[in-house]
Design a protein that fits this description.
There is one protein chain. By secondary structure, this protein is an alpha/beta fold. The chain contains 11 helices and 20 strands. The strands form 3 sheets. The chain has a 13-stranded mixed sheet with strand order 1-2-3-5-7-10-13-15-16-17-18-19-20. Strands 4-6-8-11 form a 4-stranded parallel sheet, with helices on one face. A 3-stranded parallel sheet has the order 9-12-14, with no helix packed on it. α4 packs parallel to α5. The longest helix is centred in the C-terminal third of the chain and has 15 residues.
Length: 433
């Protein structure tokens, strides 16, 4: 043997395989941080590593483009789940399939249910989404059957088509966090007895017999952003924080639901089933979602002025007896701040009010009884009123100006001054602004 070969052999023998000497639990943790394909390939390192990947606590299928075809990906995922140690704990599984545009519906559904059979505590499934869904580019549609798991704590889904029975999470009694984004939700009801945190973002709601209801009696926090409609919120007595942002939703005025018209068959918005009973009597005390939010202590409501569902709910506006922090945007300032008055009248312990402006306040829809409420308004607990302004000033060539901008005559400053003056008039002390 050459002198160089002897030196190399002696060096290798001196170093040893310190990595393989680490405890199994530590190696399993490290392998769980790798992409699943990389973790499996460690089986060729030595006899010590041959089966180390099988009980790892995390599975991350993310580099799907490396498989170059759905068939090769399918074979890998099938073997990954089949050869896994049956008695091992699976803390988390991530199936990020956004590298492939065409996937078989049944295949994705099968993988999800196999992962749940491995007692996964967290399941994340991400696919490409192109909403609104069309026949030319449909989303992957999961099987219309409930998910079954006694161990699932967190579920994240994006870019899939979900139907009725899959939204019955009564067979997932440990589920606490539900996160749905960029999906089609074709259901009349979303039910989860155990969920504490629900986030629905960028989704398209579809319904058949009645508008979608959300029933989560133990919910603590709710996020509802950029969806095409508002689900009907059932009682949530444990709710603490809620953020509802529907700023891009436009709803048509309906003579039946908004003005009490008599020709019920001419309902234009499809919501007649919730505002009228079987005897054609109007349910004047029905609330679509404000009633469900009435237990919150921190609430954000962002909407466009055309959002008529908010205004319908104000007919029977509940009292927010626990609400201490409230954020509203321009929609509450129409009709000489009448909607804002409604909220201030029904938030007896409110401590902080934030108004987020994007344009100059304008007049709008009239609400009954607003003048009497202004006269009886008491704001004993209110400590802080914050007015945020981010406006496109057309007079400055479309440049954005903030309320802290140096332009004393900017639209932002005018808007803030207008709001501040009106707030003082309705009872807010200038010292709190």
């Amino acid at each position: 043997m050459s002198r160089r070969g002897k030196i190399a052999k002696a060096s290798t023998a001196g170093c040893g395989d310190h990595l393989s000497a680490l405890p199994d639990a530590l190696l399993h943790h490290v392998l769980g941080l790798l992409e699943a394909g990389e973790a499996v390939r460690t089986c060729v390192l030595s006899r010590r590593w041959r089966h180390l990947w099988r009980p790892i606590p995390r599975l991350r299928v993310t580099d799907v483009e490396a498989f170059r075809s759905v068939e090769r990906l399918s074979g890998f995922v099938d073997q990954l789940l089949l050869l896994r140690d049956a008695g091992s704990v699976l803390d988390e599984c991530l199936l990020d399939l956004r590298g492939l545009l065409r996937l078989d519906d049944a295949l994705v559904d099968l993988w999800m249910r196999r992962v749940l059979a491995c007692h996964a505590r967290v399941l994340r499934v991400h696919l490409y989404a192109n909403l609104p869904a069309s026949q030319e580019e449909p989303l992957v549609k999961l099987v219309d059957q409930p998910l079954l798991s006694q161990h699932l704590v967190r579920l994240e889904l994006s870019g899939v088509y979900l139907e009725e029975r899959l939204f019955d999470f009564s067979s997932c009694p440990a589920l606490e966090d539900l996160n749905i984004a960029d999906c089609v939700l074709h259901t009349d009801k979303i039910f989860s007895q155990s969920s504490k945190h629900i986030s629905i973002r960028g989704c398209q709601f579809l319904w058949d017999m009645r508008p979608t209801h959300l029933s989560a009696p133990n919910l603590v926090s709710l996020q509802l952003h950029d969806c095409n409609m508002i689900p009907i919120l059932e009682s949530m007595p444990a709710l603490e924080t809620a953020s509802v942002n529907l700023g891009h939703v436009y709803e048509e005025y309906c003579d039946i639901c908004d003005n009490g018209g008599l020709e019920l068959e001419e309902c234009e918005c499809g919501m007649i089933v919730i505002y009228w009973d079987d005897d054609n009597d109007r349910k004047r005390d029905f609330s679509v979602f404000l009633g469900g939010l009435s237990s919150a202590t921190c609430l954000e409501l962002i909407a466009s002025p055309e959002m008529v569902t908010f205004r319908r709910d104000l007919r029977c506006c509940p009292t927010f007896n626990k609400l201490r922090s409230l954020l509203l945007n321009d929609w509450c300032l129409v009709a000489d701040y009448q909607i804002l008055l409604y909220f201030l009248h029904h938030t007896p312990v409110l401590e902080k009010l934030t108004l987020q402006l994007s344009k100059e306040p304008k007049s709008g829809m009239e609400l009954e009884g607003s003048s009497s409420m202004e006269q009886s308004l008491t704001l004993r607990q209110l400590k802080i009123v914050e007015v945020k302004c981010h406006i496109i000033d057309e007079r400055t060539s479309g440049k954005r100006t903030n309320c802290g901008a140096p332009f004393s005559d900017s639209v932002a400053h005018i808007a803030v001054a207008t709001v501040a003056t009106r707030l003082v008039q309705i009872g807010v002390h200038r010292a709190n602004l």
